[in-house]
Write a structure and sequence with these properties.
alpha/beta; 2 domains; 338 residues; globular; Rossmann fold; seven-stranded mixed β-sheet; 19 strands
Length: 338
């Protein structure tokens, strides 16, 4: 049996004909299984949606409670039957609630990773290797240049800058789902106990992280603060806000960007980051290759990112591999979701 009989790309996304559903559909469809709540994977307008409890809750916060007609919570690790196809969700380690989706039919297993990372992260369930025949992987950082450093070392740079520049407000650009909360948790691990100020765009999702038991320490709203405030303090905001007029209202703002893309100096300059921090919620080059080998898959499909380089490496390992060139994935990562 050809794997494409179980799963193949369509303009709407990855389609499973025997089960009649899509995985991370990019256009409204009758039935969609969703890996995680970033907007390049989770879109409104579907009929029925299945995802983890956390992903469904976050989609409701970000898209409104009417984002789909009906929803079903997936129990992690539990196989269920959809139209004769066995389906199960397993942790992906990317952000809170993120999952890989495994499909099993007529002796063939395909695992769709969505986005994932292998680094330890107390704000997301750790990635679980799922043995499979075909592994569908991302490749956001699928080049040898991308080897992520220890995030605790990067956070140490931020804390050192706060000590060295007590007269300046530190504005940290970090994506509102996943990166911001992970960064706050790393700060608490490092002993930083002062309030972390939040841009309004981060408040709902960060509040949900706390609701599900992820302790983030004292937080405060940035809205309504007087001009020239927050000297020696830290404010986390969406990356796009770093260049807004809004950012100039604080005390001699020092711009910080937290992203895997900060490994590329040109990207750091483009973002106007005085202090670039290489912190990513995606697998780097080494982790991508490690994961592919650990799954035991004989065939690799690459959904988005640096597809050609990873496909070339897979072919060199004797694995069948192909890029899927899925349009729409990675668009949110381009806005520093990475």
């Amino acid at each position: 049996m050809r794997p494409s009989e179980l799963l193949h790309p369509r303009p709407e996304g990855l389609y499973c004909p025997p089960g009649d559903f899509y995985v991370d559909a990019m256009r409204p469809v009758a039935r969609a299984l969703i890996t995680h709540a970033h907007s390049d994977h989770a879109r409104p307008g579907h009929g029925a949606v299945m995802a983890s409890r956390e992903t469904l809750a976050i989609m409701g916060l970000r898209l409104g409670e009417g984002f789909c007609e009906t929803r079903q919570e997936a129990t992690i690790g539990e196989w269920l039957n959809i139209g004769g196809v066995e389906v199960a969700f397993f942790p992906a380690g990317h952000v809170l609630g993120s999952c890989q989706i495994a499909l099993r039919w007529k002796g063939l297993t395909i695992v769709v990773s969505g986005d994932y990372k292998r680094e330890p992260d107390a704000t997301a369930a750790p990635f679980e290797v799922v043995p499979c025949d075909v592994f569908v992987t991302e490749a956001t950082f699928g080049l040898p240049v991308f080897r992520h450093p220890d995030p605790h070392r990067e956070v140490g740079k931020l804390l050192a800058s706060l000590q060295e520049n007590p007269h300046r407000a530190h504005l940290v650009g970090a994506y509102s789902l996943g990166k911001a909360q992970r960064l706050i948790h790393h700060l608490r691990e490092a002993g930083y106990d002062r309030p972390v100020y939040l841009h309004g765009a981060l408040e709902k999702v960060t509040g949900y992280y706390e609701e599900v038991g992820i302790a983030l320490g004292p937080l405060a709203r940035a809205a309504g603060l007087p001009r020239g405030s927050l000297a020696g303090e830290m404010l986390i905001c969406p990356p796009s806000s770093l260049s807004d007029i809004w950012s100039r209202r604080f005390a001699e703002p020092l711009t910080v960007a937290a992203s895997g893309w900060m490994r590329v100096r040109a990207r750091a300059r483009q973002r106007g980051a005085e202090l670039p921090l290489v912190i990513s919620d995606h697998a780097d080059w080494d982790s991508l290759r490690q994961t592919i080998l650990e799954t035991g898959a004989s065939e690799i499909w690459v959904t988005h990112g640096q597809e050609d380089a990873l496909v070339h490496w897979c072919l060199g390992q004797g694995l069948a591999a192909q890029p899927l060139h899925l349009v729409g994935f990675g668009e949110e990562a381009a806005e520093d979701a990475a």
